[in-house]
Amino acid sequence: MLGALAAPVLSATPAGAAPAAVAAVPAYSCHHLPPLPYEVHTKAVTIRSKASSKSTAVGILYKSHRFSVHKKSGNWLYITDKSTGVKGWVSGTYVYRDVRMCLS
């Protein structure tokens, strides 16, 4: 009976002993991946003639429309609505890229 109790105690490592080295896991970085595409994050956005909320509305960009972004000015994006052919400015508050989540 004493032999059964002594065996686990003899095989235990002393409290001051360093644990075995764990292989370092390389950190995965997804910053080399291309940015995510722009998306409309509401039902519809007004396309304007200038990068201002007070400028003339020239069209409406719906969530289902395809569009391309040409340039950025502050929080405004100059786009072409490929579904209708309308060009103009939309607010970056509603049209933006999602943030890529990198899990390691």
Automatic annotation (TrEMBL):
Classification via Pfam families: SH3_3
SH3b domain: residues covered: 44-95
Endpoints of the signal sequence: 1-17
Keywords tagged on the record: Signal
Source domain of life: Bacteria
UniProt name for this protein: SH3 domain-containing protein
Organism of this sequence: Streptomyces cavourensis
